[in-house]
Amino acid sequence: MSKVPFVNYGLQYKDLKSEIDGTMQDVLARGDLILRKDTDEFERRLAEFVGTKYAVALNSGTDALFFSLLTAGIGKGDEVITVSHTFVASIATIVQAGATPILIDVAEDFEMDVSKLEEAITEKTKAIILVHLNGRMSNIDKVMEIAQKHNLIVIEDAAQALGAKYNGKRAGLTGYSGCFSFYPAKILGCFGDGGGLTTNDEKVAEHVRLLRDHGQKTKTEIMCFGWNSRLDNLQAAVLNVKMNHLESWLNRRRAIASLYNEGLKEVGRIKVPPAPDNGIYFDVFQNYVLRVEDRDALFAYLKENGVETLIKDPIANHNHPGLKLSYFKLPMSEQLAKEVISLPMYPELTDEQVKYVIGCVKNFYSKK
Ligand SMILES: Cc1ncc(COP(=O)(O)O)c(C=O)c1O
Fold this sequence. Notes:
Layout: H1 9-30, H2 37-50, E1 54-58, H3 61-71, E2 79-83, H4 89-96, E3 100-104, H5 117-120, E4 125-131, H6 140-149, E5 153-157, E6 165-166, E7 169-170, E8 177-181, E9 195-199, H7 202-211, E10 216-218, E11 221-222, H8 233-243, H9 246-264, E12 270-271, E13 277-278, E14 281-282, E15 288-292, H10 295-304, H11 331-339, E16 340-343, H12 351-367
Parallel strand pairs: 2-3, 2-4, 4-5, 5-8
Antiparallel strand pairs: 1-9, 6-7, 6-14, 8-9, 10-11, 12-15, 13-14, 15-16
Helix pairs in contact: 1-8, 2-8, 3-4, 3-7, 9-12
Residues 60-62, 86-87, 89-90, 131, 157, 159-160, 181, 183, 193, 195 line the site of pyridoxal-5'-phosphate.
C-alpha cells in the first residue's frame, strides 16, 4: 500500500466499527430496509444541520439536481447556467431534464466567476446551478441578488460542500434547493451511493418525495410518474452514525488544509487554496487542490514516493468531444485543466503523513 493513499475508506470503518456494526445489525434484525425510521431520522438531522425546514434522502446527488430541475418545471426550451469546472453531473442533469446548459467560467478560487453571470442570462434562462466546489461556497449572496433581479431560481450543487459557509450561511440553505452527495469519498460518505435534497419549500420537498418513489403517496395512491431514487435505509442508518462525527471531521479537514497551506505557501510555482477562514468564507476542504507547474511530472514523482494524488479534470468538461459543448470558450477552466492536482485529504490522515506529502512536493520543486 502507498505511504499516503488518496482515500482510505477502511480506516474510517475501523475507527467506527463497533458503532457501525451495532447499527447495521440492529437495522437488519428489524428488517427495516426501505424508507423506514432511520431514513426519517437522517432527513431530520440533515435538515437541522443545514438549517432548512425539509430534507429528502435520495440515492444520489445527481438525482437531487435532476429532481430540483423537474420540480421547478424546467425542461425543453429553457436555459440553465452553470460552470464547466465541476463534476460532470452538474451539467448532465440539465441535459437530462431536456434543457440547455449555458456554461460560464470560474474565478481564481475555482468557484463561479460571478462577474460573468449577468451577461449569460437570456430570456430563456430559468435557473442557475451554483456549484460550491471543493468544500468552498460560491458567493451565494451576489448570485441570489442577480437571480432575484432576473426572476431565476438558484439550485445549490452542494455535493462537495456539506458544512461549508458563506457569510454565516451553510451550503444548501439559501437557494431553491441544496443538493448533496453521500458517495463514499464525500465529507459524509455512506457505503455506496447516496444523496439528499434540502429545501425550505414544503411543496418542493413533497414533490421530490413523490419523484423518488414512483409517484407513490401511499402504497395505493400514485400521484405522478416518478423514479426509484430512494436512499437505502441501511445507508441512512450508517449516515446517522457518521453524522455524530461530522463536526470533528470538518475541523480535522480544515486543520489538515492549514498544515498543507503553511508547508507549501513558500514553494514557488505552486498556488495553494485560500486559508480555511478567509473573510466571510468558511471552507471545509472536500478536496485540497493545488495549481501547479509541471503537474504531470509532480503526479509521477509523488506516486514514485508513495503519495497518491488525483488529477480529476485533465480535460475541461466542455472539451470532452462526446458532450458536444466545445463551442464554449472558458479560458480559466481550460487553464485549470492543465494545472490542478488534488492531494490526499481525509480526516484520518495523520500530521506525519501530511508533513511527508509536503516534504515530497518541496523536494520535487527544489530539484527542478
Ligand atoms: C459537484 C458535484 N455535483 C454532483 C455530484 C453528483 O453526486 P452523486 O455522485 O452522488 O450522484 C458530485 C459527486 O461527485 C459532485 O462532486
